[in-house]
Amino acid sequence: MLRISVVIPTYRRPDLLFKCIGALREQTLPLAHFEIIVVSDGPDPITSEALHTWTDKPANLRYLPLPQKAGPAAARNYGWQQAQAELIAFTDDDTLPTPNWLTGYLEAWKEETLAAFTGKVIVPLPPYPTDFAQNTAGLETADFVTANCACTKQALVLIDGFDERFTMAWREDSDLHFKILGANIPLSKVEKAAVIHPVREARWGVSIGEQKKTLFNALLFKKHRALYQQQIHAKPPFTYYLTVLSLMVALLGLLSMHTITALIALAVWLVLVLQFSLKRLANTSHSSSHIYEMLYTSAIIPFVSIYWHFYGLIKYRVWFV
Fold first, then answer.
1. Which CATH superfamily is domain 4-202 in?
2. Whole-model pTM?
3. Is the dihedral of CA 185, 188, 194, 198 positive or negative?
């Protein structure tokens, strides 16, 4: 008897995906009682070929590629819409569900038509993690993340699933959370339903590219203004604006031959960048490579963050600073 469906969005990460599926095969829930739906976010020959040649592929696995890349929200929608069970669990391809993950959700579910659940996320960290790893560890304290949650199909139908305008892995989980709250769907925390979320390898300077995600803060704010202000309230900090302004004043001072003004403004910029770097280095790795990365990215992040913030404001026609 099929009791629960698992939806996993993925894209060109078969090594991570196979580890996730391997963990699902170790569930205390018998394999016959759940299905695994892997949805590729667009044409993905790497994952398709890996699954095709996998001789030990579990029988309860279905692979469903999207016709074109549309983001994890679209992939999750396609997955739950194809699911056969009434209760649907979501996780990501870079997680390792613990053995009692699915039984935890099934024990908490009393077969209500409308119900939603969120589980526990464990992010193992070394004594001195990188800044990227420290940020990933924020998943442990988040109220609701799609790396570990479950909803009934009827609940997803009622709130129209994930908003596919969130085309990156950012704020689509908060949007789903806020829609659940807005529809008064019962939401429960299930500690037993835990997944381990190892910190994946990240390229040097990854935090600069991560700033692009902040454009979706504007969309979330536009849709759920009150809840956004209560629970997230994310915006570029005042020091970001001051960092950008001080460097602009320094450059203008040099161009207009106001040397003293330029030197003072440049000193302010250097102090702000150093303070930001030290803040990010607190309780993190002090390797020479990581220190250099923090200095370099701390000088650039304020500019990139403000750019994407205002890009989002213009794109979604909303205003907050």
1. Spore Coat Polysaccharide Biosynthesis Protein SpsA; Chain A (3.90.550.10)
2. 0.95
3. positive
